[in-house]
Write a structure and sequence with these properties.
With 193 residues, the chain is mostly helical. The protein is 74% helix and 0% strand. Helix 1 (9-23) packs across helix 2, helix 4 packs parallel to helix 7 (118-144) and helix 7 crosses helix 8 (154-174).
Length: 193
């Protein structure tokens, strides 16, 4: 009789993602993953083959959940300049939720694994490129609507905003002070005036 999953894969990925986010890849053991997901070790291995595969699936879920849904929401509900501001604010809210300093799962992963894991590096680079493209799209749209001042190629400004965002997300690990983070956002948005 073939083996059949008896669990919701999205639920397992969510729980695994939270464990990896809390402790990082290296510090999260398979026993931690068994405990947090409520799935026995054999089922986890049968579905994901190893910890790394489970991590990659969790990272892809985070990209889908956080990034794609957020970008859709912003494009649908805000003007260009406000979309950029709301993007930064959404990350501040997410990474400091409950007074924590977990940082951003994608940025934490970039720092921990991307330098020596080509698969992870590709996922992180893709997410960063999507953010950069979103910023450039909003800048060009804002310039066309007279909402954002033209200051050179939009892609260059977008890259500066991406660098500010990544710096902000790294800073949240040691200084998750909302006032400080909001000051950084306002400074980054001055590039648009």
């Amino acid at each position: 009789m073939p083996w059949e999953k008896q669990f919701d894969e999205n639920d397992v990925l969510e729980k695994a993602m939270q464990a990896f986010w809390d402790k990082g890849y290296a510090a999260t053991s398979m026993q931690d993953l068994v405990k947090c997901t409520g799935i026995n070790r054999g089922s986890l291995y049968a579905t994901y083959s190893d910890k790394h595969s489970l991590f990659v699936a969790s990272l892809r879920m985070y990209e889908q959940k956080m990034l794609h849904q957020l970008l859709f929401k912003l494009r649908s509900n805000y003007g260009p300049r406000d979309s950029i501001r709301q993007f930064f604010l959404a990350f501040i809210e997410d990474v400091t939720e409950g007074g924590g300093n977990r940082g951003c799962f994608m940025t934490n992963t970039a720092l921990e694994l991307a330098p020596h894991d080509a698969n992870v590096r590709e996922i992180v680079a893709n997410a960063q490129s999507q953010i950069e493209d979103f910023f450039a799209e909003m800048i060009n749209k804002g310039i066309a609507q007279g909402e954002i001042a033209p200051r050179g190629p939009a892609i260059e400004t977008a890259r500066g905003l991406l660098a500010s965002l990544i710096g902000l997300l790294v800073l949240t690990r040691s200084r998750p002070e909302r006032e400080l983070l909001h000051t950084i956002v306002e400074e980054a948005l001055r590039r648009l005036t």
